[in-house]
Design brief:
With about 160 residues, the protein is mainly beta. The chain contains 1 helix and 15 strands, in the order H-E-E-E-E-E-E-E-E-E-E-E-E-E-E-E. It has one domain: Immunoglobulin-like (Sandwich).
């Protein structure tokens, strides 16, 4: 009886340890979120109205290891769209029809890119050599709203 009880406990502990490594992503709290908006055409500010955020953009947000300007390849035309990122992809998140995205990132520094048409939109440059660096910290939420301004006549 003792051997049977001991064996049952060992098997239970083994099965529990195997399942603990497979926690579904939707059960992990998100610590990085925001919205993605697209600005097109005339975005001239009006005196009586606040600046528009743009229309929500349903797309994919890509998170890469910190990326330098030497690791991105320009698109066909100069500008914020790059054709290739020569860095390691860490994760991605889908922005829904409201432009909202959310995911969990381990504390650290990352580069952020937005899938746009046939390339990747660079939301901003960080310093002299870095591309769109964000930082997540332990027990803190990071929010980033991104405005994609590619075809606007006024930014």
């Amino acid at each position: 009886m003792r051997n049977c009880l001991g064996l049952t406990m060992m098997v239970s502990i083994f099965m529990l340890s195997i399942n603990c490594g497979k926690i579904p992503k939707n059960l992990i709290k998100s610590n990085f979120s925001g919205h993605i908006y697209e600005h097109k055409f005339n975005n001239m500010p009006l005196l009586d109205k606040p600046k528009a955020k743009g229309r929500p953009l349903e797309t994919t947000l890509y998170i890469y290891e910190p990326t330098t300007t030497n690791q991105i390849e320009e698109g066909l035309q100069p500008g914020p769209i790059v054709s290739k990122i020569n860095s390691t992809l860490v994760d991605s998140a889908h922005a829904d029809k409201t432009g909202a995205y959310s995911l969990y990132l381990h504390p650290g520094r990352y580069s952020v890119f937005v899938k746009y048409e046939n390339g990747y939109y660079v939301p901003f440059y960080s310093g002299k050599n870095w591309v769109s660096i964000i930082e997540t910290k332990q027990n803190e939420k990071t929010e980033l709203d991104i405005e994609v301004k590619v075809n606007s006549s006024y930014e």
